[in-house]
Amino acid sequence: MDQHPGDAELASRLGELRERIANASSRGLGQEVTLLCVTKQASDSFVWSLYRAGERHFGENYLQAARRRNWPADSVLHMIGSLQQNKARAASRFFDVIESVDRPGLLAQMDLASHVAPVATSALGSSHTRAFSLSPRFLLQLNLTGDETRRGVSPEVAKRWLSLLSEIEAAHLDGLMMVADPALSPEARRPSFAQLFSLACEWRREYSMELPVLSMGMSADFEIAVEEGATEVRLGTALGVERH
Question: Which domains does the chain have, with CATH numbers?
């Protein structure tokens, strides 16, 4: 039995979330913000409820689980989980955006993926057709917590990568992504959000890159992230996503 909210409740909840995002943006830079629906633990019926409510961006943690879903044809799929290097090629062909690039080997595999012809997702068992991407877009995941055991690269390492990325013509760097330290209170995470925004501004100037996407902020802290410049927030719990 699906324990997720029904269509009417979900529409109301989404309306409230969109209003909170808009209000947070007005307190910040007034930027447009994409709501990325984290559906890694959601049922297919809930994904379609989100779709009927107007959402198009969906985030998944695992390639195989995402492949098994019955996706709407015009959905925009984001890989937000840790990606194994041996699955990077397949992920680059399936997802529209890879948000968790934190190792050079992933970039090399994504580059290789660009030379494989696109296929419809129906070839993988889905009843809906989605074209694979020939030019994988990605976000560079940063670790600003100071904890070296957490995923993401340091700003120092990221700068070295940025100077080399022009050599990887097939992969398009759309921006930066981070996960704030969950041990901190939401307000205590604000400096790390501000730091990511500052780094993006600095690197846009230094490397002549657009870096339009700043993916930061989740259900517990998305308003603070938007106030500090987020252009994408990743929400799951706030939508009512539960295990199924």
Answer: 7-239 (3.20.20.10)
pLDDT the model gives residue 128: 46
For residue 243, the model assigns a pLDDT of 52
pLDDT at 64: 94
The SS3 of residue 52 is helix
What tokens were used for 101?
């690039």
Phi, psi of 156 (to 5 degrees): -65, -45
Among candidates 89, 86, 85, which has minimal Cα distance to 115?
89
Contacts of 52 (CB under 8 A, 6+ apart): 7
Dig out the tokens for 240 from the structure. 């009512």
Q: What are phi and psi of 25, to 5 degrees?
A: -65, -40
Phi-psi region of 221 (alpha: psi -120 to 50; beta: other; left: phi over 0): alpha
Give yes or no for a contact between 28 and 229, defined as CB atoms under 8 angstroms apart: yes
Asked whether the beta carbons of 170 and 193 are under 8 A apart, the reply is no
Q: Is the pLDDT of residue 126 over 70?
A: no
Q: How far apart are CA 120 and CA 144, in angstroms?
A: 38
Tell me the pLDDT tens digit for each residue of 202-238.
999 998 889 999 999 999 999 999 999 999 999 999 9
Q: For residue 105, which phi and psi values (nearest 5 degrees)? A: -60, -30
Please state whether the predicted TM-score (pTM) of the whole model is above 0.90.
no
For 13, 104, 177, the CA distances from 16, given in Å and listed in that order, are 5, 40, 25
